[in-house]
């Protein structure tokens, strides 16, 4: 099954590379930034891109992983050993570190 899945992935990438259009243009080579034209030039201009979108994506991943972790924990809570409580507490503390980092970077301030 793993070999079939890898084979399909490799064939799809190769087919795309061989059969896809290869006409490069300035618009196609430009960095994509949330549907908007990137501000501040590009590589070699010495200007930096804001990392606000990166931090928002990190926030989404933190809470997405939290949901994926806590849902099965809540379903099987009655059957778990007490050590699972300490594991969940450790996980919450790790999430809290990420949340504090995001608060210090002022990602949640949109104005």
Descriptive tags:
single chain, 111 residues, mainly alpha, flat
Describe this structure in words.
The protein is mainly alpha-helical and 111 residues long. α3 (52-75) runs antiparallel to α4 (83-104). It starts with a helix and ends in a 7-residue tail after the last helix. The protein contains four helices and no strands. The model has no long low-confidence stretch (mean pLDDT 79).
Short description:
With 111 residues, the chain is mostly helical. Helix content is 61%, strand content 0%.
Distance between the termini: 50 Å
Please mark out the parts with pLDDT under 50 across 5 or more consecutive residues, or reply none: none
Strand content: under 5%
- How large is the radius of gyration? 22 Å
Which percent bin holds the helix content? 55-70%
State the total count of DSSP E strands. 0
